[in-house]
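Example complex used in Figure S2.
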Amino acid sequence: MAGRIVTLLLHLAFASWRWIPLACLAALLLAAAWAVRSLEVDPSNESLNVPDAHRLATLERFHALFGSDEDLLIAWRDTELATPAGLSRVAELTTELRQIPGVTAVFSLTNALQVVPGETGAELKPLVAPPYDRPTVRHELEVAVQRMPEFVGWLISPDLTVTAVWLTLSEESARPQHAARTIEAVRAAVDHLRRHGLVAHLTGVPVQKYEVTAYIQRDERLLLPLAVVVLGSVLWLHFHRIGAVILPLAVAGMTVLIVHAGLALCGIRLNAITSLLPPILLVLALTPCIHLLHFWFRADAPLEPRERTRAMLDHLLWRCVLCAATTACGFAALAISPMPAVREFGLAAAFGSLVGFALALWLVPLGSQVLFAPTPTTMSTRANQRNSLHPFLHLCGRLSIHWPWTTLITALVCGVALSVGIGLLRNNTDLVRFLKPGAPLREDTFWIDRHLGGPYPLEFLIERRDGLRLAHASDWQRIAAWAQASREIPTVGGVLSLADLLRHVHAAEYGLNRATLPTEDDVVEELLDFLAVVPDQPLVRRLISPEQTVARIQVRLRAVGTADVVATAERLMNLAQLHLGPTYEFRPTGPLYYLARDSNQLVRQQLQSFAVSFVLVGLLMALSVGSVRIGAVALVPNILPIAMTAGLLGFLGIDLSTGTAMIAAAAMGLVVDDTIHYIGAFRQNLRRNEGPFEAARRTTLETGPALVANNLVLVAGFWVGVAGSFLPTIYFSLFTGVALILALLCDLLVTPACLVLLTRR
Amino acid sequence: MKHRNLLTAVVLLFSLHAAFLPPRSAWAIREIAYRCTVFAADAPIGEVRVFQRDGAVVLQTLLQTVLMRRVVAEIRKKEEANWPSDRPGSESSQRYVAALERVQRVLWQQRARSTRGPNPPQRLAIEFVQGTREAWVGLGTFELQGNPTAFNLSALRVLERLDLDRRYIGENIRLILADACHLDQAAIDRLLRSLSTGQPTAQPQPE
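Predicted assembly (968 residues):
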């Protein structure tokens, strides 16, 4: 089988008709380029949502009952807020924001209503009625805020100097493709405050999604070309041949093109996950190219091109096949994910690794014999490189061969010590903290959190299981008790529910001194009847469904990450069980909750996929070497660097996020290649009856340079990501590089030590 | 003979039908001389209509709202303003308001409770009737047919009837027309005169 493939590849490289398949490839690439033109970007990232019938039903119900749940929050400090000028500014901005297409509701100090006792019962009147040019306006505001303390933290700070405006976007305008326009229009309106020397701060889940997507896209535009430049530079530094730069990069470029054409033909749109494919495919396709080129420049290879190519393929074909298969298996393991975007990413990367491997095997021999006719010069270059790495490789060889147990135990002790940090890892995607300090969204969100408390709205739906109206006094007593208990949670900044409004209506309707909830069902009915027909409905409609069967409760969370969001949601659910009991159905919902849940789920799935890929890779290696023991041993130098990197993340207090969770999968797919090449070369040397010690020494000295070169190129490529503007990208790039360096050390120290220990008997 | 029997049977059937029909009910109105919509906080909550029935002038107010307690409180407020204790007729006013509040409480207790969706509105009918010999106020509830905002009465159930001072009734009819329908005194005079003479009159225009 291998002989036939080698013959085919030799024909493809040397036969007179070799230009025909090359022309076909050119045609294929043209067709791929044409197909890629139709590749669409899905800015809404809908494929990141796990298809979940229950969730969809809850969302649809929420939207049907309460409309959009996409809120933006604007806040600013104005020392003249409680003056005619300050209130006029709020009113002007409120009017201006309301006119922006896609804004369905605006809540501010100047359109908020308070409940007051009237001649015939409760009445609603503006918190501060216009015009504001009267001397008593500050006193009126103070009295109103005292009467309705729920507004503190929601619309105004306790010292009356910071105010907030809440905007609700329509579902359509909150979609990422339209959100940019809406958010920019909001920013333009808010900028008018600058005329008065005021600085407004804007946050909200739609802004987070918009900004984060923009950062990712900006990073892609910057980092991919930068990665190409850096990879090219490192390739040139290593091979000193411009052809040796162009050839691997061309193979990588073709791989990227073909995979993206495949995505377009399958009707798959690029999303936040699949947009990571180009850099991944770039490094996947480069790896076999580097190994093949490295052999081509070997001093001891035959000088005749055909024989050199045959020797190269004999030497590397099986290892490259195994590398491609293990990488493809690793990525294909992502297909178990229920998240469409992750499945698409896994399958596309698996396909890409096979395409890159096939193209490398075909084009590197073909290109090498054209670009680098073997001459004594190439041999001298190789000899020089060997000299520069020789002391290091010699040291590795000595350590692993002469003191295998010491080397292995030292590595294991280091691995275990660092792995302790894994226990400190937390699954936490905090989109705002992922931005670099100084990023406007980060600063704005924290500013609002500090001055108002709780910029993130977490939504809950409460309804009776019997489907009846929430018209019993006990319904609202229980909801109020739950809300009161919820306010004690440190991550909760405030809770807003209809119970608060009912309390005030009750007091105003019956002339009570204190705002308390009614204890009689008839009174509750009466108050609900009042709320059903009051002229200004936006706030009421925000808090209870038109049929009065479902209540919406908005819990404002402090600026926390997904770990805390989900933990708080769970705690609130537990409190709901305690205070509401089984009579009620209590469901968390809203964009923040789903974002948090999806992020955490994505991280968990990536780790599960890594576990599956780890097992698959182990099995494949065991099968390939025909030995379970060697297959198992081969996993040790691969699991150690990943465990050490994960532990390092834990010790450094870096959370597991969608970015950092990918380090394991990406590193595993790459580091296993080094082990395969090392074991393949070791077994080849062993077959020459060199004995385990000599085989290990020779393998380290012969294969070591290729491994070092390959890892250097990959590390340089990954570390380009450190220039990114988004911390997950930076962490992913930095720590994948760290994992690759650790893996290289393991492959040069632990792998030979294990092999020597296994085979010396 | 055969035809005579058939005729007898038909006559008998008609007689039986007439015998079992409810007596001519208070809501059987031939012609409404004037009507206007009643608003509360800019929302229509009812209708005031004036017509003649059995020779008496009737001012009928049909109210439908979930906030009936507030509407009744509003009526009390107006009655107290219009009929201070030193004014003749104040006793009738007090009796009227007390009865109104009783009926409102009865209607509240008897109201239909919705299990899903807001409660349906309560319906209160108030009739000020000024005949040649008697004057009274009827309080009750009503049913509508068709579009609920068109106030096509299909049934009216009187829960309480108060015989009150004629002058109070007459004056209150005028006050209600002026307050609810925004008619000036001249228009009210013309409207009531046309009713008492039985002559049709042009629809009075609000002020």
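DSSP finds 25 helices and ten strands in chain A. Residues 445-591 of chain A form one domain.
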